[in-house]
Design brief:
Number of helices: 10
Helix content: 40-55%
CATH topology of the domain at 4-183: Ribosomal Protein S5, domain 2
Order of helices and strands: EEEEEHEHHHEEEHHHHHEEHEE
CATH architecture of the domain at 4-183: 2-Layer Sandwich
Bound molecules: alpha-D-galactopyranose
Strand order of the largest sheet: 5-4-6-3-1-13
Structural class: alpha+beta
Strand content: 15-25%
């Protein structure tokens, strides 16, 4: 009987550090108790690949020797992973694959990275490819660039692969050095509220933001040739450029430079158990994403606004790429139930949509089941 490999790779949260990863900055993610499970087995053919997406009951096929991205669809994640593994030397044969999971799609919890990582991990095991986790992280990130068309940073794939139970991770996206430390919020906990919206401009705006940051760097480099990207820019340095670059470019750069600083301050605050300061930084992150980076949306802003006069909530912000998905809030444990009900009612009244709350736990990254 053919060997069957089953793997699981989780979605992620991010405490703070949004749109910093592709600017070589810092992020503070953690893997969660929502994951994609992939099952693969060889089917005895040289190149026939059959796939079943269990959650939506769809099937697809491609030939290992002849495939390319389709206009839209989950098949791009799978074919992208295969293509990137082949690029780094993987010798594959035909396989049958089925997958399913519980990472809500479009929620900002990285359902796509969780699928890509689980699938790459499964193929690595099935065909004994011998790639290490970092090779798989980079291959899955490139799958997203080259097949899905989103020029994402490395945070999601990193978190999905490297997650560790009860630990958050401070990742330096330039050096790829990272540090685990415990998520200890004392009397507080994290609460995610899913807006259940995913505005379609998200993908194109994501790539635009990346380009806007690069444009900013090109201007800064004229007087600071050592600057490679926004990671190297300080707020003082950036202030020289006020009025000397387009106002929108300046705002984008300002968000990234300030957000990088916030990640480092937030890490210190967490280590010192200064939850109040952590909360303030989380709010600052949201307002910066809303006003300067302009990747929020009315639904997310509304949910953050709801928390502002609640003394039992220390901080709240949009999480992930933006234009929909979840907010993440730091809330007093005993008030979670009351606030969930209150927020769901207010959200329904304002947008006529349901709100989905999640209290996630922090779990291990990719593994064989
Ligand atoms: C998406 C991308 C990540 C990161 C976030 C924003 O989740 O996949 O690489 O850029 O958006 O922080």
């Amino acid at each position: 009987m053919a060997t069957v490999i089953r793997t699981q790779s989780p979605g992620r949260i991010n405490i703070i550090g949004e749109h910093t990863d592709y600017n070589d900055g810092f992020v503070l993610p953690a893997a969660i108790d929502k994951a994609t499970v992939v099952q693969v087995k060889k089917n005895g053919t040289a190149s026939d690949c059959n796939m079943i997406a269990l959650n939506i009951g769809e099937v697809a096929y491609f030939d290992l020797n002849n495939f390319k991205p389709i206009e839209n669809g989950w098949q791009n994640y799978m074919m992208g992973v295969v293509a990137e593994l082949q690029k780094i030397g993987a010798k594959l044969e035909g396989f049958d694959c089925e997958f399913g999971g519980n990472v809500p799609i479009g929620s900002g919890m990285s359902s796509s990275a969780s699928l890509e990582c689980s699938f790459a991990y499964a193929l690595n095991e099935l065909f004994e490819l011998g790639f290490d986790k970092w090779q798989l992280i980079k291959a899955t990130q490139m799958a997203e660039h080259n097949f899905v068309g989103i020029k994402c940073g490395i945070m999601d794939q990193f978190a999905s692969m490297m997650g560790k139970k009860d630990q958050v991770m401070l990742l330096d996206c330039r050096t790829l050095e990272f540090e685990y430390f415990p998520l200890d919020l004392g009397d507080y906990q994290l609460l995610l509220l899913n807006t259940n919206v995913s505005h379609s401009l998200g993908d194109s705006e994501y790539n635009n933001r990346r380009e806007e940051c690069e444009n900013g760097v090109a201007i800064i480099q004229k007087t600071h040739p050592d600057v490679k990207n926004l990671r190297d820019v300080t707020l003082t340095m950036l202030s020289e450029f006020m009025g000397k670059m387009p106002a929108v470019t300046f705002k984008r750069c300002y968000h990234v430079v300030a957000e990088n600083q916030r990640v480092q301050e937030a890490t210190e605050a967490m280590k010192k158990h200064d939850h109040k300061l952590l909360g303030e930084l989380v709010y600052q992150s949201h307002f910066s994403l809303q006003n300067d980076y302009e990747v929020s949306c009315p639904e997310l802003d509304f949910l953050v606004q709801l928390t502002l006069d609640k003394d039992y909530i220390l901080g709240s912000r949009m999480m992930g790429g933006g234009f929909g998905g979840c907010t993440i809030s730091i809330i007093k444990k005993e008030m979670v139930g009351i606030f969930k009900t209150y927020a769901a009612k207010a959200y329904k009244e304002r947008f006529d949509k349901d709100l989905t709350p999640y209290t996630v736990s922090i779990e291990d990254g990719a593994k064989v089941l």
